[in-house]
Amino acid sequence: MQASAQVQRITELYERDQRSGAKATLPTDIPVSYEAMTPEWLTHVMCRNQPGAKVVGFSLSEIDNGSSNRRRVFLQYNAAGQAAGLPPSVFCKASHVLINRISLGLSGAARGEAMFYNNVRPLLDIDAPRAYLATYDPESFNSIVMLDDLAGQVEFGAQDTVVTRERAESMVRLMASYHSSMFEHPELVSGELGLPTWQQEWATTVRLLHMDAAAERGVRAAESVIPARLFSRAAEIYPAMQRSVAKHDQLPSTLLHSDTHLKNWYVRGQHGMGLMDWQLACVGNWSRDVAYAIAVALQTPQRREWERDLLQLYLEECRSRAVAVPSLNEAWDLYRQQLFTALAWWTITLCPTEVLPADMQPSQTAMEFIGRIARAIDDLDALAVR
């Protein structure tokens, strides 16, 4: 089905849901809005393993819309629920607004996040949220994910979060942990766990979200933060993005978070790092996650000073888990090449196409991250990697 026909169909089903005014009461229901939740439905989700426990009321936080529709839900329980120590709140991500249904549906993110939390997250021993519910409608792309509410427990990443050397090393260790756990995992690689490959995810983005045009517009719009030498070769950037994706055909596969920018990390305690927002989880080579995380998380002077040491630490962590990894020089070339699709993710954020929310991220955040990635590409002469 062509993108225009898919958009039309999603729109029709969204309008049907809005007209219905239906409340979520059954365990199989997917609320069409946060206001459509009911204590009965929340009891099914939150109390299913606690006999006698019930949700007797709830309230909602303020609206927070971006790439998804996010709200905290504050829960009140009966005496049995209180005695069971059930969580007083959950953090939710949904596709309750039409543009979010379209973008999360066409990109595969609605399905991918549900597959990750239901099939993959239970296999991992990392600092990442767990889901009480992750579900989507494969036709309308109405969806909701209900997660651990980390507010007050962690410091959420922002474009100005200071990533110390200790924090950077914690990020690298966490990525090495889930990459090693899922390295060439038979059910992951075969598709049984329900995640697409990175190559499939990229092809979908190009075909339905017009990544080629968005990348070109984004590079032009970000000229002020892109080194002049790299900007003068702007016509070579999108082909380099394509080559970086094609390289995955020749490389071992593992679980990728695939969107390891700084705002998807959080700090627990002083230096420990955790990783959230797994809606783009897919199957590909480790180098995408590592290059993306290091280039975006670190200020340019720290990245220049630490990046080779961090890559060496990553390889050592994987080897300690009996995972075969390339030499440092081979890994270095992969690191350089995979910077290009990190740039792609932010040029399309700066200049989104018509099927993406206009306010996925503040423009100043996109410009900051594009600048960091572009300086890394320029410093490392990444266009020379083939």
Describe the structure.
It is a single chain. By secondary structure, this protein is α+β, with helices and mostly antiparallel strands. The strands form three sheets. Strands 1, 2, 3, 4, 5 and 6 form a six-stranded antiparallel sheet that branches. It has a three-stranded antiparallel sheet with strand order 7-9-10. The protein has a two-stranded antiparallel ribbon with strand order 8-11. Helix 6 packs antiparallel against helix 12, helix 6 runs parallel beside helix 13 and helix 12 crosses helix 15. It is globular and about 60 Å long.
Our Rg estimate from Cα atoms comes to 21 Å
Uncertain stretches of 5 or more adjacent residues: none
**Overall mean pLDDT:** 95
Helices, by number, come to 16
Proportion of helical residues:
40-55%
Q: What percentage of the residues does DSSP assign to strands (E)?
A: 5-15%
Provide a compact summary of the structure.
With 386 residues, the protein is α+β, with helices and mostly antiparallel strands. It contains 16 helices and 11 strands.
